[in-house]
Design brief:
Number of domains: 1
Oligomer: single chain
Order of helices and strands: EHEEEHEHEHEEEEEHEHEHEE
CATH topology: Metallo-beta-lactamase, Chain A
Shape: globular
CATH superfamily: Ribonuclease Z/Hydroxyacylglutathione hydrolase-like
CATH architecture: 4-Layer Sandwich
Length: 303
């Protein structure tokens, strides 16, 4: 797999790689953290774009979806799919600032897990209510469609998506994305060692199988082992836990993500170096890094 920083056009990125392009538009957790200490790994909250031959799909709508929306306005496409892992603020806060919302020529389908008795459309309409936002949902000009996806699978063009409920407060899912013979797993919020969640038994095996043999795993790695004991039940994993999952699942490349808003670039560098040493000692051949905002991760199509 390559990491490049080519121009922003999805078609040109995919053509250059002759395959699939993955770009993180937001890698931070909890709250945006712009500033000189976060310029390399990024300060926007969670948003991921995956581009195939003639289509791109979006995962989560944190503050990173705002610059992605500007890119879509300039270059297309007009038919947009947004898949959500859940509705915590850092995963939806960029949605009202997503420029295609206000273009009548655009169509936007939002797919995400239903939260108890509240459907996806009402969750977004409530977010843009007058208490929270000055512009009402009624001014949205794009053709909007909302669907629920709490379990099972979904297809968009050449993309095949499977979902799994993970350990995090509320109903939260991770995505296994299959395209062009490659597998990308996106699980930005997940407490691998959590014990406070009302999930069916066998979670540990299911999550290993879910990420099994993935070409790329982007996984929640918000805490260090020192920090974690004071944050049990907060819904996030450590760098070491994510590394363990990737090794057990036979993953080819792991990107730590959902960076703590207080974590500086220097601190992320140090943690990645430590994890690379651990991966090398294990002899697994696993490539390890941290998700970086604005960088294209490319995968060749499987022959």
């Amino acid at each position: 797999m390559d990491s490049t920083s080519n121009e922003n056009t999805p078609a040109s990125r995919v053509k250059a790689a002759d395959g699939i392009s993955v770009r993180c538009w937001g890698t931070r957790g909890s709250i945006p953290s712009p500033g000189p200490d976060t310029t390399r790994y990024g300060g926007n909250t969670t948003c991921l774009e995956v581009c195939g031959a003639d289509q791109r799909i979006i995962f989560d709508a944190g503050s990173g979806i705002r610059p992605l929306g500007l890119d879509i306005v300039e270059k297309g496409p007009n038919a947009i799919h947004i898949f959500l892992t859940h509705f915590h603020w850092d995963h939806i806060q960029g949605f009202p600032f997503f420029s295609p919302l206000y273009d009548p020529e655009d169509s936007i389908k939002v797919i995400g897990p239903k939260q108890k008795d509240i459907d996806v459309q009402n969750l977004f309409a409530g977010q843009m209510g007058p208490i929270y936002f000055p512009v009402p949902f009624s001014v949205v000009a794009a053709v909007m469609e909302f669907e629920h996806l709490n379990e099972g699978s979904y297809e968009v063009g050449e993309f095949e998506l499977d979902v799994m409920r993970v350990r995090h407060p509320s109903f939260v899912i991770g995505y296994r994305i299959k395209v062009a013979g490659r597998v990308i797993c996106f699980i930005p919020d997940n407490e691998l060692d959590g014990t406070v969640y009302d999930l069916e038994p066998g979670f540990d095996k299911r999550i290993v199988d879910f990420v099994g043999d993935a070409d790329l795993l982007i996984h929640d790695s918000m805490y260090t082992e020192v920090e974690y004991p004071k944050r049990l039940g907060w819904g996030h994993s450590t760098f070491e836990q994510s590394l363990r999952l990737a090794k057990e699942g036979g993953v080819k490349r792991l990107l730590f993500s959902h960076h703590d808003p207080t974590r500086t670039d220097y601190e992320v560098d140090a943690l990645v170096a430590k994890m690379r040493e651990a991966a090398a000692r294990s002899g697994s051949g696993l490539e390890v890094g941290a998700a970086m905002e604005g960088i294209d991760y490319t995968l060749e199509r499987s022959k």
